[in-house]
Write a structure and sequence with these properties.
Order of helices and strands: EHHEEEEEEEEEEHE
Number of strands: 12
Helix content: 10-25%
Radius of gyration: 16 Å
Strand content: 25-35%
CATH architecture of the largest domain: Beta Barrel
Strand order of the largest sheet: 5-4-3-12-7-8-9-11
CATH topology of the largest domain: L,D-transpeptidase catalytic domain-like
Number of helices: 3
Mean pLDDT: 97
CATH class of the largest domain: Mainly Beta
Low-confidence stretches: none
Length: 165
């Protein structure tokens, strides 16, 4: 079972949008919750997702180094070059999970899309491979198509993604 820790400024409605989970389902999974009053650091059960600590993989993203690192049981398995958000549309930092995968999303998203638990953000391929290694996206994490396909084939839904500098 996945637990989300409430961050400053978050509302239950935004959390439900971030996880693409109906508000009613989150309220039901958290008996006794007051949906109009959340506290920073409060743990909320998000139904339908596994506890990331029970999964073998974890992804760490370095915005400064333009690298995505895949770990299995704490050991580095592979590193990939990436593109990240530009100054005006920065990639969000923090801890997220992979919510879903969509092959062949089309357009600028390349051959694979993996949604993050932050509405509008994901890890995806690209139709502009020369952008990899630069800060040029609208906030998503871009990868070479063959890299994102490889990554998506390995990591399960619920995999933790830690994004930092």
């Amino acid at each position: 079972m996945y637990h989300h820790l409430v961050k400053p400024g978050e509302t239950l409605w935004q959390i439900s949008l971030d996880y693409r989970t109906p508000l009613e389902n989150i309220i039901q999974a958290n008996s006794g919750i007051n949906p109009n009053y959340l506290t920073i650091g409060q743990a909320l059960v998000i139904p339908g997702f596994p506890d990331p600590t029970t999964l073998p993989y974890e992804i760490k993203v370095s915005l400064t180094n333009h690298r995505l690192s895949l770990f299995q049981h704490g050991s580095l398995v592979k590193e990939y070059p990436i593109a990240v958000g530009k100054m005006l549309t920065r990639t969000p930092t923090g801890q997220f999970i992979i919510l879903n995968k969509a092959p062949n999303p089309g357009g600028p998203y390349g051959t694979m899309w993996m949604s993050l638990s932050k509405q509008g953000y994901g890890i995806h391929g690209t139709n502009n491979p020369s952008s990899i290694g630069h800060s040029v996206s609208h906030g998503c994490i871009r990868m070479h198509n063959h890299d994102v396909e490889e990554l998506a084939s390995m990591v399960p839904i619920g995999t933790r993604v830690i994004i930092g500098h």
